[in-house]
Amino acid sequence: MKKWVVFAFILVILLSYGIPQLNVKSGGEGKVNIENGSLPSKDSQMITVSKEQMYQGDLLLVNADYALHQEGIRSDVVSLSDRSDLVKGFGLLDPSIQLSQSIVKSFGKMVAGAAKDGVNHFLINSGYRDADKQDQLYRDMGHDYALPAYHSEHNLGVSLDIGSTEAKMEDAKEGKWLEQHAWEYGFILRYPKGKEEITGIKFEPWHFRYVGRAHSAIMYQQDLTLEQYLDELKKTKGLSITLDNQKYTVTYYPMVGDSVTVRVPKGEHYDISGNNYDGVIVTAYA
Ligand SMILES: [Zn+2]
Prior knowledge:
By secondary structure, this protein is an alpha+beta fold. It is 26% helix and 25% strand. The protein has 2 domains: 22-59 and 235-286, Phosphorylase Kinase, domain 1 (2-Layer Sandwich); 73-210, Muramoyl-pentapeptide Carboxypeptidase, domain 2.
């Protein structure tokens, strides 16, 4: 066969199949279907998003390479020992623990879900940390287990270290349950085993991060860390995921100068989050 014939043949295959459908891990709760897909222009509109948005939202990447910006810190951080209405079904290691109120609510739902499976010895060991506390921890723990001030997700108020009152997390039922089910509640195991090269942090079976349910589902099903997921979003023209009959469309837009124009559905059914380095992600739910 002539070279151009082979080339044309490959081209036809590529065009007819488009980008192959992403692999979906089998098992897990709920019905999950992930495909490539963008928001249809019908029923949507273009809006302009300013650069500040790049540093706010559920999908901020904060690690050794990217420091958080002040506007990324959750404004609803509360002291949990003052909020017995929020602390139900789990304990606190000490009374100074703080966390974003909306995230502790999601954590409470997760703990209630685990209790239905007979897993009910949860403890929050650490939540939000301010820069001084982070700095102290970094000096005490070293760079394998802690990050400098402004480079830890704990400084955002969206991450927490979860323990079990029964055993170490790697052995505890609580740890095993979370590894399988946290994604159903919008959380990810942020530093998994085998991904140390990507995250730069050793396996931490206790550290969970809130990213929102559509994203946690995709990351869990595709076995992606936050670093990998944000990279993946940049490569695709958009992803759609159907979770229990709710369809979400996730689209990345690179920031151009001080703003970017993005497509959103008409009405309020969307969230925008920055990635904290070069763009924003629109999550539309129809
Ligand atoms: Zn942690």
